[in-house]
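Entry for zinc ion complex. Fields follow.
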Amino acid sequence: MIDMEHRGHGPVVCSQALAIVLVAAILAPVTAAGAGQFDLEHSIPVRSYPVRVFYSEKNKKIAHRIAEICEERIPVLAGALGLNAVAPFQIQVIPDLKPYQRRAQNDLPTWGIAFAFMESQVMLVDAKRAASAWNSLEKVIPHELSHLLLAQRVAPVPMPLWFVEGLAQWQAGQWSVLENWRLMNAVWSGKTPSLGRIAAAFPAAEMQARDAYRISYAAFTFRFENGLEELPQFLSLLAETRSFTDAFVAQWNESIIEFYVRFHETVQKRYHSRLLIFQTGPLFTIIAVLFLFIFIRVKLRNRRKLKKMERSELGLSLDDR
Ligand SMILES: [Zn+2]
């Protein structure tokens, strides 16, 4: 559950290969029927934006918290993307995701808390899971908002998932020392997927998917290591050219494939050199402990010898008397 608190969220269903499949299979029923399909009898507006949160009576508290988070975070999230005006979208707090997943032919991961549909501009929040990991809303909602706002900024441009997910994690502040450690472990054990492999779809299994999220975050921050002010510039190019590949070359004078190769080489180098430190760390500790053990043993032996000598000397002196 710690994982869910930090990073629990569904996949972005964005305007690309994955989305095309899902949009056809899933989104149509949701957008066609809207919130009514889930018997969400109530709704509240987000004060400063054309956003509504739909909910049923028992999820009132969650819905109000989500509206508050939207009010606080939308200006920051939209600002970082260079999005000047937020277009309408809706958030549906669903009491039970199961009927929805049945309609989606179980394409949505069972471990997600919220799901963003970039094209139809709908966010679904699983109330049950959100309630059991209350603090996670602070991270999960901004993550999904990032997806919806990104779509408003550049849609309908297809984008690789590592970029979309890396950006959302960065915007939601979902990275931590623990995540870094997990990424390092995944690199050591050769479990990290290549960026090319996760460009269109993430693995369905939770553990593999989480490795994909981590490497996405690393790739995103590596791309923008010279400063995040490049982000709105790049998104402008993306909206203009309507091609991720063309905008990428125009912004950085490097093809995506060249970037992938450079990124993977850097990751291997970076984490394997850290591995060396960790490998020598325990070795150093073992040597230090051994040294201490020998030192104490010698000390004790000397003390025993000294006592023996003292005793024998005392004995001699007594005999003398
Ligand atoms: Zn996401």
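NOTE: The pocket of zinc ion is lined by residues 9, 11-12, 143, 147, 165, 168 (CB under 6 Å).
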